[in-house]
Write a structure and sequence with these properties.
2 domains, mainly beta, Alpha-Beta Plaits
Length: about 160
């Protein structure tokens, strides 16, 4: 069965995962231990690694059943289809977290991000993201002295 990515209401990840498990679904909400400090004390708490995202394994025909649970907003889509995560990626993430290798910083492409194009006419050229709207990105190709607008597909950037 494929793994899908669910988007949840903010700070509802653990509760949504728990309620989906009660309904019999296989759910994975990667958690990391973080030290929180209040004015009077410090405490270790479990926080989701990916805020507002959880992974769920189910059949295609079961996809609408998840909306019975309060806190589920929608599925994450990639190129017009529900995003699917491979079993190997989930296993790698689980083993990585179990081994304590939790020094991770997740960043999205933002204006100013430097990327290398892996496919197409500009393959191998370094670019700077100027703007991103949906699948379209405005890229500055300094080596060529131009600005291009590209529709991005999977595996096009590094």
């Amino acid at each position: 069965m494929p793994w899908y990515v669910l988007y949840t209401k903010p700070r509802n990840e653990k509760k949504v995962a728990e309620n989906l498990q009660k309904l019999g679904f296989t759910v994975y909400c990667p958690l990391v231990e973080v030290v929180k400090q209040w004015s009077d004390r410090k405490k270790k708490v479990q926080e989701p690694l990916l805020t507002s995202y959880i992974f769920i394994q189910l059949e295609e025909q079961q996809r609408n059943q998840v909306f019975q649970v309060a806190g589920v907003v929608r599925y994450l889509y990639w190129l017009g289809k529900p995003a699917i995560v491979r079993n190997e990626e989930i296993t790698t993430l689980q083993s990585w977290l179990l081994n304590g290798n939790q020094k991770l910083q997740i960043e999205q492409l933002r204006p100013g991000s430097k990327i290398t194009l892996k496919e197409g006419v500009f393959k191998g050229i370094d670019a700077i993201v100027k703007e991103q709207r949906g699948k379209k990105m405005q890229l500055v190709l300094e080596s060529l002295g131009i600005v291009v607008i590209m529709e991005m597909a999977q595996n096009v950037v590094e």
